[in-house]
Design brief:
The chain has four domains: 67 residues, no CATH class; 62 residues; 95 residues, Nucleotidyltransferase, domain 5 (2-Layer Sandwich); 27 residues. 56% of the residues lie in helices and 16% in strands. Strands 6-5-4-7-8 form a five-stranded mixed β-sheet. Strands 1-2-3 form a three-stranded antiparallel β-sheet, with no helix packed on it. Helix 1 crosses helix 2, helix 3 crosses helix 5 and helix 9 packs across helix 10.
């Protein structure tokens, strides 16, 4: 049998599926429809006092049921809202800024400037140490791949820096430049540098490294002259503004200056270095002494045991 929820069953007992007995008059009634309307009619016609109590009890029971349902609905809605807010906050906490976010763009710029100012390799930003640091410092920042910063530097930072340097050069009445060729062992390439020097109106020295290009062919004077002309054209430096080109004593550099019709002079420091080397090589006794010193230094540099004995 199902549990009896109506207050009417306070006054009746169920004998079987089709019959009930009144607790007040002990009379038995048939209940074919299995409803409670016949029971309420009996109570109303035969037991008016008890029927009034039943109505009060039934009204109170219905009111309590409605209130219970209302509270359950409110609690369920509140719990749902709380759960949604918590979920939203959790997602927002782990959601990275969009690339167009003001703070994200500022950090992109600072990282690019850091790479340029400290002459760092682009793969520095892919290092686990740097990525852990950025994640701890600002979890909302999405650290991009190296290709992004390479493109950002070339397409955004470089044009601005280029215009600023051109304005600095325009403020110089005359400029001289130094140039040299050297081989980079790590990259296995030869490089030609071009650095401009001048004094501005405030009588302050200005020194700007404008270009460093690779030389894949033989380092002939014609090739060097071609590269120098391209650099002057790229930076819009008129020839009448050139004072002199400082170079080493290489024949190719001298020929490049003649082809480009640029006044050139030898580098004083380079000339001094050549003089010192020549003087050392011309003295037989000093050369022998220098060779012995090199042997001693090489021995201790390659021997851990020798270093310990020397320190002792």
């Amino acid at each position: 049998m199902r549990p009896k929820c109506s207050a009417i069953w306070t006054y009746f007992n169920e004998v079987d599926d089709q019959t009930v007995r009144c607790n007040l008059c002990n009379q038995t009634y048939s209940r074919k429809g299995r409803g409670t309307s016949g029971l309420r009619s009996h109570l109303q016609s035969r037991h008016k006092t008890e029927y009034t109590e039943y109505e009060k009890c039934d009204a109170a029971s219905k009111k309590a049921e409605v209130e219970k349902k209302r509270k359950c609905t409110e609690e369920t809605s509140l719990q749902l809202v709380k759960r949604q807010v918590t979920l939203q906050e959790s997602l927002m906490k782990h959601q990275c800024w969009d690339s167009s976010h003001e703070k994200s763009r500022e950090l992109d710029k600072l990282i690019c400037e850091m790479i340029a100012l400290q002459d760092l390799p682009f793969n520095f930003i892919e290092g686990i140490g740097f990525r852990r640091f950025v994640q701890a410092a600002q979890p909302k920042y999405d650290l991009k791949k190296r290709q992004y910063y390479t493109s950002h530097l070339c397409n955004y930072v470089y044009p601005k820096l280029y215009e600023k340097i051109k304005n600095l050069i325009k403020d110089l009445e005359y400029v001289s430049f130094t140039t040299d060729i050297w081989t980079e062992p790590g990259a296995g390439v030869s490089l030609l540098s071009f650095t401009v020097h001048g004094i501005n109106d405030g009588f302050k020295r200005v020194s700007l490294l404008l270009k460093c290009v690779t030389l894949e062919e033989r380092h002939t004077g014609d090739l060097v002259a071609q590269k120098l002309d391209e650099i002057l054209e790229e930076w819009d430096i008129p020839r009448q503004k050139l004072h002199a080109m400082v170079r080493d004593g290489g024949s190719n550099m001298k020929r490049a200056a003649r082809i480009s019709q640029i006044d050139d002079i030898d580098c004083t420091l380079h000339q001094l270095q050549l003089c010192v080397r020549s003087a050392l090589a011309s003295n037989e006794h000093f050369s022998t002494l220098l060779a012995k010193c090199k042997q001693i230094a090489t021995h201790f540099n390659h021997s851990i045991t020798g270093q310990k004995e020397l320190n002792a």
